[in-house]
Write a structure and sequence with these properties.
Layout lengths: L11 H5 L6 H8 L20 H11 L9 H7 L2 H25 L6 H24 L12 H23 L12 H29 L10 E6 L3 H12 L4 E7 L9 E2 L2 E5 L4 H7 L4 E4 L6 H13 L3 E4 L3 H6 L8 E2 L2 H5 L8 H8 L3 E5 L4 H11 L5 E6 L2 H12 L6 E6 L5 H11 L3 E4 L6 H6 L1 H21 L4 E5 L10 H19 L3 E6 L2 E2 L7 H9 L4 E3 L5 E2 L1 E2 L1 H14 L5 E4 L5 E2 H11 L10 E3 L20 E2 L5 E4 L6 H17 L2 H11 L11
Parallel strand pairs: 1-2, 1-5, 2-4, 5-6, 8-9, 8-11, 9-10, 11-12, 12-13, 13-18, 14-17, 15-20
Antiparallel strand pairs: 3-4, 6-7, 16-19, 18-22, 21-22
Helix pairs in contact: 5-6, 5-8, 6-7, 7-8, 14-22, 15-22, 17-19, 19-20, 19-24, 20-25, 24-25
Length: about 700
């Protein structure tokens, strides 16, 4: 890997040394010595790039280099491969014209027609070569001849035929008052097409054979890497170390200092703005995006160019994944929606987070869920003494336990199967493991399901939270962090109303206990179990339609790792009673998200997969909010974390409502519970937002 600050110090001689026409090139033909090395800490020079692959693109760059002069540059700019193609095609066209005469006269050509042949062959060759040039035949490498190249040759030969027929009609092909035979003209066109196509197809077959170790092995892919920084160098090194059927053709980078330089055997051809041109000129099969810290807008731009060029796209894992240790640098993957919707990396105050986690006993409820499991992964980085994985579902707890077992590093890992509503069981857990910090992520979160199961939503989201929160105070827990939701703001759903009630419960406890209680609100997270993305993927796999509630519906989205990092940071900020709000960026249209996912599947929205609008479901909002008007918004010392001003709580009134909710939940009286929740949150429940 390149060390930070390493320069790509390449002289002009090095850039041109492999080009035919440069003096050094002639030495290369008779010498086995390696070219001069560059000044750099490491060079992935073993990532092979065949010279004739490289020439086709490199010679396009030389015209813009003004720092060189002299005969060597003149020779370097001559496209020797193109000249050889033209010379060979000239011979093939001339041979085809001769064969046409031999076929027409059964091999017995009289002196009169021999004179006609010798007179017209230069003209026929010139016409055909001009047609070839016009249709871009000489912009193609023979080793990559395919259907497109064959069609180009076919069109070129047809145009040449039409020109010759026109000249024949005008009497311009008469030699000694003897017009060129129509039979010769048509036979010549057929023979000429076969003569031009044959060597090209043969070269393609030879190339494929040379790229296979055995006849069943697939042809190696030609890869262009976007990003010539440290990440790009690591990708080159990994591709070099693994035999994975790819050849790196070159690099692309927007840093002007790197453009037209070479890194080992690899050329930095140009900028991302020129990416479509290089994909076509270099016959690229796959583009690898090696920019883990690039903003999503930049990734989206590059992916869109690759999509239009119809090439595969792979991406290096993002910084969140690399930091968390879930993936390594060599695990290239397909570009996902997460890559396009993520934001700039979060800058954490590692010291402040470690200050309340390191060496402590940490309890995570809902540890098998999307947010809970990511909390456990990231908490492990701060070296707690003990991490208690608490959840109701045994399979999800087993999965996260097995994952974390591989990186214990001195942390005591305790898997616990329990229901947060079971006060007796939870009390025993607190007494046995004595947690210092509690992250409460256990909750029912599916909005439509909770509309139909109000008693269950209240029992789990309200009284499960109340149970864990009160036990935290009773057992001297230092910090309690509630994972809340943006749906708690002016809630129109049962799920949102129960989360708002849970916030009020811990704010009440914060005022009367020594435990530091905080809540953290954020919107939807991609790839979570409750996300719409898995549903859409299933619908796409079944041929559609993809269902969207409303064409104007918007949601806030963020990545799970980013949300969890900010939750950890918020836990270090609070003094007790605060509701922290994460910066969710700009809201995203659900329809745009659905269309993007369809395109990622290689299909076209509205053509291959229909999008069907099904209307707003019970409890859903058209637009989500993050704060009530009364709470306001105050900045913290971290740009992506805000804090809402705590509101005064009527403790006696809250207790009465909680008591009535407990009675209603025990009786399963959904209408009564809905009425109580609606009164508690200010009458917004089930008032769907349609504007």
């Amino acid at each position: 890997m390149l060390e930070s600050g390493a320069e790509l110090d390449c002289s002009a001689d090095l850039r041109f040394s492999n080009l035919p026409g440069h003096p050094a090139w002639y030495k290369t033909l008779t010498s086995t010595k390696t070219p001069p090395k560059m000044t750099m800490s490491a060079e992935p020079s073993q990532v092979s790039l065949n010279d004739d692959d490289q020439l086709n693109a490199v010679d396009k760059l030389e015209s813009s280099l003004e720092t060189e002069s002299g005969f060597g540059i003149f020779l370097a700019r001559i496209r020797w491969k193109r000249i050889m193609q033209v010379i060979l095609d000239s011979a093939l066209v001339a041979l085809g014209f001769t064969l046409a005469f031999l076929i027409r006269f059964d091999g017995h050509v009289t002196p009169l027609y021999l004179h006609q042949l010798s007179t017209l062959v230069p003209l026929v060759v010139a016409i055909q070569l001009s047609a070839n040039w016009t249709f871009g035949v000489y912009k193609r490498l023979w080793r990559y001849t395919g259907l497109t190249e064959v069609m180009e040759l076919g069109v070129s030969v047809m145009v040449g035929l039409l020109v010759v027929l026109t000249m024949r009609k005008l009497g311009l092909l008469s030699v000694e008052n003897n017009q060129l035979s129509y039979g010769i003209i048509f036979v010549n066109s057929c023979v000429c097409f076969l003569a031009l196509v044959g060597p090209r197809v043969l070269r393609r077959l030879m190339t494929e054979h040379s790229q296979r170790k055995h006849w069943r092995q697939p042809v190696r892919k030609r890869v262009l890497v976007v990003g010539a920084g440290d990440a790009g160098m690591m990708v080159l090194r990994e591709l070099n170390m693994r035999s994975n059927g790819v050849d790196v053709v070159g690099l692309i980078d927007d840093d002007p200092a790197k453009v037209r330089k070479r890194i080992g055997a690899i050329t930095v051809f140009g900028t991302t703005a020129e990416l479509p041109k290089y994909i076509e000129n270099l016959f690229i099969d796959q583009v690898i995006i090696a920019m883990p810290s690039a903003p999503p807008s930049e990734t989206r731009r590059i992916v869109e160019m690759c999509r239009q060029a119809e090439v595969e796209t792979r991406i290096l894992p993002g910084l969140f994944e690399l930091i968390d240790g879930k993936v390594s640098i060599n695990q290239l993957r397909e570009v996902s929606l997460e890559d396009l919707l993520g934001r700039d990396p979060v800058k954490l105050d590692q010291e402040s987070i470690a200050g309340y986690i390191a060496g402590r006993s940490v309890l995570v409820t809902g540890a098998g869920g999307s947010i809970g499991s990511e909390l456990c992964r990231q908490i492990m980085r701060f070296n707690p003494h003990r991490l208690i994985l608490l959840g109701k579902g045994e399979n999800s707890i087993f999965t996260i336990q097995q994952e974390l077992n591989r990186k214990l590093d001195g942390v005591e890992l305790i898997p616990v199967i329990a229901d947060v509503r079971d006060q007796v069981r939870m009390k025993a857990i607190f007494e046995q493991f004595k947690p210092n910090v509690v992250f409460h992520a256990a909750a029912h979160k599916h909005v439509p399901l909770m509309e139909a199961n109000v008693a269950e939503a209240v029992a789990n989201n309200v009284f499960g939270t109340k149970c864990v929160a009160e036990l935290s105070a009773a057992h001297g827990v230092e910090t309690f962090v509630l994972v809340s939701s943006d749906k708690a703001v002016n809630p129109t759903s049962v799920m949102g109303a129960t989360k708002r009630t849970a916030e009020l419960v811990i704010q009440d406890l914060a005022a009367i206990t020594d435990t530091k209680y905080v809540a953290v609100r954020f919107g939807n997270v991609l790839a979570s179990r409750g996300s719409v993305i898995p549903l859409w993927k299933q619908q796409i796999s079944q041929g559609g339609p993809v269902t969207v509630t409303h064409p104007e519906a918007t949601r806030y989205f963020m990545l799970i790792p980013e949300a969890v990092q900010l939750i950890l940071q918020a836990g270090a900020l609070g003094n007790g009673g605060e509701i922290f709000v994460l910066d969710m960026g700009k809201p995203v249209k659900i329809l745009d998200l659905a269309n993007d996912l369809i395109r990622f599947s290689g299909l076209s929205p509205g053509t291959d997969i229909e999008v069907q609008f099904i209307g707003m479901r019970p409890g859903e909002k058209l637009y989500e909010e993050l704060l009530t008007q009364e709470e306001g918004l105050t900045k913290t010392s971290y740009e992506k974390i805000f804090v809402g001003k705590p509101q005064p709580i009527d403790r006696e009134g809250l207790q009465k409502v909680v008591d009535r909710l407990r009675t209603g939940a025990a009786a399963g009286d959904d209408p009564a519970l809905r009425s109580e929740l609606n009164q508690l949150v200010g009458g917004t429940l089930n008032q769907q937002q349609n504007v």
